Amino acid sequence: MAEQKKTMATNLEASELLERLRGGSWKGRRELLIITHTHPDPDTIASAAALRLLVKKCFGVNSSIAYKRDYCRAENRAMVQKLNITL
């Protein structure tokens, strides 16, 4: 039951994000800057990459992912390298 509520909340948040993005004024915008928290972990990197893809596919807006400091753990570096994610 708790897992179902969590899934429903996640779906609602995703729908709300799309609605907010649709309502945004993208006219004349050329690029979006996506900023992560310090020392991004795999979830953060994946979320930023997904948002970049979503904005490009839905609105035709290019984006860049920025982070502070470094993603220094080996699994983070491997993920970025293997999935060819530009940060």
Short description:
This protein is mostly helical and 87 residues long. The chain has helices at residues 2-23, 42-59, 74-82, and strands at 31-35, 62-66.
Structure description:
56% of the residues lie in helices and 11% in strands. The protein has a two-stranded parallel ribbon. By secondary structure, the protein is mainly alpha-helical. It has helices at residues 2-23, 42-59, 74-82; strands at residues 31-35, 62-66. 9% of the residues are buried. The protein is elongated, with a radius of gyration of 15 Å.
Could you outline the blueprint of secondary structure elements for this entry?
Layout: H1 2-23, E1 31-35, H2 42-59, E2 62-66, H3 74-82
Parallel strand pairs: 1-2
Task: Spell out the key features of this protein.
3 helices, 11% strand, mainly alpha
Largest beta sheet: strand ordering: 1-2
Structural class, from helix and strand content?
mainly alpha
Could you estimate the helical fraction of the residues in percent?
55-70%
Compute the CA-based radius of gyration. Answer: 15 Å
Rough outline: elongated
Low-confidence runs: 4-9
> What about the largest sheet?
2 strands, parallel
The number of helical runs is 3
Euclidean distance between termini CA atoms: 38 Å
Order of helices and strands: HEHEH
